[in-house]
Amino acid sequence: MLTYSFRALILFLSLCATSQGFAQQAVKPGTTAKIKGKITDAKTAEDIPFAQLVLYRDSSQIAVSTSDLEGKYSFNGLAPGTYRIKAIYVGYTPREFSKLSLKANQVLIQDIQLSSGVELEEITITGHAPKVVEVQQMSVKTLTREEYRSVPAKNINSVAGTSAGIYNKRKGKHDGDKNTAYALDYNREGYNRIYDNEFKDSRHDPLSTFSIDVDRASYSNVRRFLNQHSLPQADAVRIEEMINYFSYKYPQPKGEDPFSITTQYTECPWNKKHSLIHIGLQGKEVKLDHLPANNLTFLIDVSGSMSSEDKLPLLKSGLRLLVEQMRPEDKVSLVVYAGAAGVVLPPTSGDHKDRILDALDKLESGGSTAGGEGIILAYKTARENYNAKGNNRIILATDGDFNVGISSDGELTRLIEKEREDGVFLSVLGFGTGNYQDGKMEQLADKGNGNYAYIDNILEAKKVLVKEMGGTLLTIAKDVKLQIEFNPAKVKAYRLVGYENRLLNKEDFNDDKKDAGELGSGHTVTAIYEIIPAGSEELVASTDALKYQETKPNSAASGAEMMTIKFRYKEPKEKTSKLMTHVVSDQKTGFENSSENCRFSVAVAEFGMLLRDSKFRGDSDFKSVIELAKSAKGADEEGYRAEFIKLVEIAELLKK
Fold this sequence. Notes:
The protein is of the alpha+beta class. It is 25% helix and 28% strand. The protein has 3 domains: 4-184, Immunoglobulin-like (Sandwich), CATH 2.60.40.1120; 200-286 and 476-542 and 556-655, Gamma-adaptin ear (GAE) domain (Immunoglobulin-like, Sandwich), CATH 2.60.40; 292-462, von Willebrand factor, type A domain (Rossmann fold), CATH 3.40.50.410.
């Protein structure tokens, strides 16, 4: 979605251009009728400056106004008739007042109270732009709400959230430069709250159960923050997604199961009293020419929020790369949504790339965001062209802002859960800044048995849609769950690093109705446990001894086994799971002698804990992360690990 400052400028351009045209439609000679009022916060009664007021007559938009610093607004020179007003402000629920009857020379007072907590609804402003050249020469900067309030009203020429003039922060005043427009600085990106996993006492809580995660969106999103010279907020950092962004050289599976299991027991570099268990899964790699036919439905957000260069233009460039890889047996449909949803390209074979690319090139942004309606139409399109022997998938590309239609997380996920049972999976590609809704998009992909990626540049689009296309589009195992049973004779306590939103109840492991993660062709999955060895004097939170049952270890606990890993997974079209087991013995390797896979993934985990300022970061620091990553960089043919090292260096400087 557009940053608020950019949206404000667009509205500013439109309003400068349309003020004359609207007046001609509304004014009747000899009348002085007007509508005016004040906009305030419904809870605090605080004035709301720079709210947007849209005036309608006979269902047509005829004028737009903006409240001043005191929350006041007015529409002047109106003809008699019946009007409707919509009031909109960032972070507040829009309100509408209809059937406002206005007589000749009447002054109608309409005060408005807005309630906070709901996202801004977008409005398309119509009209012509005779003064656009003059306005485009203005530069745009942002001010906080407090800074706006300190600007004298006489120095402001405000329209749709912008004020002309330079604000001098040091002097605390407005200098009145008419070549600069200012707008409120507002960021409404959405992330789900993350609480670090705590240590669990293996005597009373020996089972750890979680769903795998092959999403990588968090890493590229963190990269976007750092490349824009800012540290990411803690909840944007999902450590498992950062670790799994990178490929690791685990052995290819040799048996009938679609993945191999590799484990390593080693030292913990950030806490010398602890140890680490490193677990690696390697998905079977299916060559591109052996992939089944694809029935792909691109569901593309073309709302007004997608107009910036890092959204729809980048999306179109990325999808062009995917289309170029398509085969004659593959088919593509193109569904778009804004104020409404529609099919702009019926199912088209991959040998007609020109038609597909032409449809992509014609996409333009505008309107509000009917995401729910778009998803319904996309599933309908995918079902009508279902390939029983192929890969049926919807690829949703958006900034995640659903504000019209089915918008609640519950409604959307129930719809997606129902459709996945019929074999149509959903992958999500995220774009943009400022209002990026990460939490909602992650949930949609998880419920849709698909992958979630954040595209911050064209190289990431190539990585996701070309280099990793097999894994992105082809699921080789679904509902993959891990359950680890720790031997209390060897492990006093354990902590899973990351995967906080992938934890499952122990009973969920054997429940084939419980949804879990999906593994794509060639994908690797890495998990790290931090271990407190048995015999440690370190205190661990635990419960009182049980009164009615024995909790003593049995004879098997006295052996060399540290833990047993159990895996459950389903074939993509099956409903019954299969079980695999793997035992980890008490054979510890010095960290410096551990594998390159282990050392580099641990460096990424440390970096994630530093960005989150985790209480479990121990002796970690950016310097040690950089040294460790350099020692484990390996061949790094594509340069992703070298880029990681640069990002750590940027974060270190920003922290200082």
